[in-house]
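We include the pair:
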Amino acid sequence: MDQDKKRVGQLAATNPFPKVGHMNEVLRLLRVFHDMKGYELAEQLNVSKSYLSEIENGKKEPSIALIKQYAKVFNTTPSAIMFLAENLGADKENNIEKKLSGKMLGLLKELANENAENLFD
């Protein structure tokens, strides 16, 4: 039993914030939706552009403190960001949260595409 506790402690130390659904996609879409360049957001979050890129590409997981900073920059709540990320990948087919988060993510993608198209008008 002591070995189990030790192993749990080691796992927590290596990954204190377990992967949450599609956090990287939600964070990327928040930035794109607000028509913000990566370097601009990195500056506001006080992180490097490469670190932000790794987060958005799913290579690194954001800390809770960073999610709070995202929420502040984008005038939302950390819980709203977590809700989208957690429920986007939910396994239950009839889960209303999954349907809602999927629709919200779809809307963000549509708006991001419209913003990208309007950049060249």
Remarks:
- The domain at 17-118 is CATH 1.10.260.40 (434 Repressor (Amino-terminal Domain)).
- Residues 6 and 108 are 42 Å apart (CA to CA).
- The first helix runs from residue 2 to 14.
